[in-house]
Amino acid sequence: MELFDLVKKGSSVLVIGKPRSEKTLFASQFLADGMRMKENSIYVITNNFPEYAVDNILRQMEGGIDTPLKIIDCYTLHAGISKLDESAVTRVSGPYALNEISIALTNVLRSVKPPVRVVFDTISPLVLHNKLSQIEEFMEVNMGKLKAQKSTTLIMVEKGMHDEKELSVLESLTDTTIEFGTGTLLIKHPAGEQEVKYKLEGNKILLES
Question: Which entry of 30, 83, 122, 186 is 20 to 30 Å from 52 by CA?
């Protein structure tokens, strides 16, 4: 089994892991994998400079990025001059601005053809800055948009930052949950649960046979 056989095309996946851990590598690897297959990609960034996110993706690819990568930057609107091509970046006020993020996502989706890969890295700042009912509405609306575009979506969430109610809401609005443990992935889906072992090899996550 290959790593992204765990992610069904056209589905939404909640990915739980520690901050700056393998889950961030998983997101970069997921987008790089799609871009190698000439799929359009959208990266919604809430907790880091977009330049770092692009650097992480470049480490996964040989020869650089030649497939469109669109970035919605919820982090650094007033952080100075970006090194990135501004045509690829849509900047919003911050993780508290759910309406701005929704509008930006709608506009970016209109500019790309399906299939699309989308990563929210991470949704945790959105949950921390907004009421849970607002997050639920935001997720319901945007998951509908993404499914209509045949998007495969990863929703990254920081382990240990949310209570049981918050996680339950996020899980109810996504199709599958993947939780990173020490050398194991716990996959939860409607049919049940399974545990898969993984290892790190260089800057890649590989499933163990």
Answer: 186
